[in-house]
Design a protein that fits this description.
With 738 residues, the chain is an alpha+beta fold.
Length: 738
Amino acid sequence: MRFAVLLPWWGYALAFGAAALLAWAAYARAAAALTGRERALLVGLRATALSLIVAALLRPVAILPSDDPRRRVVPLLVDASRSMGVADEGTETRLDRARAVAGEIIAGLGPAFRIELLAFGDAVTRASLDQLTPSARRSNLSVAVEETVERFRHEDLAGVIVLSDGGDTSGRPIEGGRVSGARVFPIGIGASPSARDRAVLNLTAGEAVLPEAALDLSVSFVSRGFGTAPVDVRLSANGRPVEVRRVAPAADGAPVHQVFTVSPTADQPTVYTVDLVGTGDELSGDNNRRSVLVPPQVGRRKILIVEGAPGFEHTFLKRALASDRGLDVDAVVRKGQNDDGQPTFFVQAGESRAAALSSGYPSTPDALFQYDAIVFGNVEAEFFTREQLALTSRFVAERGGGLLVLGARSFEHQGLSATSLAEALPLDITDRRTAAARAPEGGEGQAVNTPAVTSDGAGHPATRLAPGLEASRAIWKKLPALASVSLVGGPRPGAQILAVTSSPGGDAHPLIAVQRYGQGRTMMFAGEASWRWRMLRPASDTSYDTIWRQLVRWLAASTPGTVSMPPMAVGNAGDVEPLSVTVRSGRFEAVTDAQVSINVTDPDGAVRTLEPALEDARAGRYTVPIRFDQEGVYRVDAEARRGDLALGTATRHVLVGGADLEMADLALNEPVLQRLAAATGGRYLRPDETAELRDLLKGDDQERATEMKDLWHNAWTLLAIVGLLAAEWLVRRRCGLA
């Protein structure tokens, strides 16, 4: 026996204690004199009656085995996404097969269980067998299972049966904790991995740094059922043919990876599309194509250069960066000291920013955080105050800015190792004994202090100088030797060494190293006199300018503005996706009272205006759902204001229909279904094993269906309470209280 109204133990004690206290208080000061025996009898009768009333209100119940086995519910989830419309053999589609299997399950389990037929795709809905159609744009398998378990949380759930081909576009794996206590029995519906089908599995674009610079498109595809027959892979840019390759898989069904090097247009979005030229005799041609969007390189990045003294390095570096129309460069050069012994500076900066640089370096977040990247050149740590160094660390970690440290003076003695910036740098200055790095391929016999890119640096957007990797390596090999190279220690965990130089002993030492730090990026350049790469090469060789422009642009590429939007990719026309806009002040603190407006330009040129609402005050994030009804490229422009003050703008291009995840890989994905069963304590079954479901769902005796039977809802309870109250009244009358 237990109570249906659940309370902690002290709640029950308080309820019954209150009943006893009320009974005692009723006779603590009776109008007539009572003996101790009479008082105890009256209090006992009243307390017993009140306790019975309290117990009735708490609903005492008994847990008994259910006499009706159909009280145990079994949800039957049927995948109704578009991939279930594929005909694996003949004209019977996967949904036809699932419908037939579902009918067998209902007929076999119906007498013992209550079957709830549900369809899932974009959402979970009630369905009937004759109404099931393969029309859902997605198959959110793991979400559907979680929603189903939650829907029947308060019922006696024997288990969940899932009929699916294993496609899951929800993007998250099933976790047993989210469906605790519910066993899932997936049944695989679909073609075996040997079915004839070709599919583009993935297409990604590398990071573009300079306008019209080369970047890599990485494509992965699979060809099943065709053996090692070659596949024609066709690449196009905004509908224009670019390249066609004939590629033969190493084995039937083996993944194939190809890299295309392209140069996108700088001032407009470029959509690259990869097509597998099909033969028509495969499961579906819908998965033979995938597209990716490369956004335009627009806008100017603000760069601050701080030099410890005038010199060739500063002059050449400033000239190379100033020639880049995508960079807005401010420079501060320490000249010497005035008559009072205070340092003096030569400042080249925009009118609105020059005042904050008059003392050599900004001291406030508003002044420093307006830049996208900072360059420290030949400047010792003592040049900065402790507060300025801590502010620079925040600039990288929180603001998301870039930091480049170069020049021998920056690394002399302890350098920045004893400052708050030490952890941000990619090389550990405190451990210079581990400065040796892995020599690049083909670097044997490399002259002292000459640069060479590593395997990481050959294809890295910051150090790649030509479309082909070998051509890029060749350009680096032609560069003259540096005057010297500082030993700056080994890489920190997660850092990348992009270029090295050779010491007189033949060891390779880091020259260019990078890492992510918080939201930003940091870089160290350990060489001295890189201007030689310009002066000792022909006038037509622009490698020096390209190297420094790419390095600095890469540092600043991911720096967000005060108004920013994350990248988006929408799978299908008709999808509704949330668009978020983050608004921050000049100090990069969240703004919660901004007026944010969004203009969405559709592929056909129509413009609509949306007003997002504040969703996350801590981050300053505003969100609004957007429906994308057309395939193609959308332009999204966001503007934030606070009254008459403009806080900033942001632009994002969104590709709709670039990747149809629902039809990406049409082979039966048994591993997904098997993981689902294992995570929930269920079992994966094939369609011809459904007869085993009855025994699997019954479980052991401890899992039998139960029901609660009320113990208070009868005439005896009422008679007991009335009898106790009547007895109390008789005793009261005998004692002269009635």
